[in-house]
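Section 3.1: Structural characterization of target chains.
Under the original work plan, the team committed to producing a structural model for every single-chain target entering the pipeline before any wet-lab resources were allocated. The record below documents one such target. The sequence was received from the expression subgroup and is listed exactly as submitted; it comprises 264 residues.
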Amino acid sequence: MLNILSIDVALGAVCCAVWFSLLFNSSLKPQALASLGLTVWIIYTADHLLDARKIQGQASTNRHRYHQQHFKWLVFSLVIAVAIDLVFVVFIRKIVFQWGLLLSGLMVLYFLTQQYLKYLKEFIIALLFSFGVLLPSMAIAQRYPDFFELVVVIEFFLTALLNLLLFSWFDRHHDIRDKRESMVTLLGEQQSKRVLQFVFAVNMVLIVGSFLYAPHLIGKTFVLFAMNAVLIFIFFRPYQFQINDRFRLLGDSVFLFPIIYLFL
């Protein structure tokens, strides 16, 4: 249920934001983290509700079927979450609020252009998710990342992209049945597998490079390595993980991995 409602995704975003705060030596206030978690949940739930509404007949995935069946309750919850989020926003730092307005504008643009994104949908979502969890730390630090920090940011973005492409690959038959477009349905199964393998290979090259040339970031690099290792393991065990959407449960849980680093 936590996965169907995207609660684990919201918690993962908060964990990753705290993890990035250590990278940038930024101190995040609880209200900023609460606002981030709520915002991520609002965005994901709104996206799933829009998808569920577009599907004619009963959705073929558990997630969209649940959003169809409980549409009114989820819309009501969404309104309440937005109201609570606005209260938290009042108490966050001014600089974080200003950067948040930029992200909000980008999210509005995403929802307005969603149906035209086609091949770019997973790429844009990964970009917005990465920017969202990175935003509080960078805003407070008021500086751009140095070269090695930038490499870590790129590795995180590629991990988020790999996660989304992997999910689309597993959901390809459901998406075709429900007439929902994704990069996978547009490229086809075999071409999508090559894209997945390419993204993973590029990210692993960057991660190995970080191990070799940025020893001061070895702990954070190991977290990213573990996240990617789990995702690619899921990819090579499709029959095992497609049962009861196990791929989604484990795939989303990788964004909780940074919490392990926080306790080391």
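The first helix runs from residue 7 to 23.
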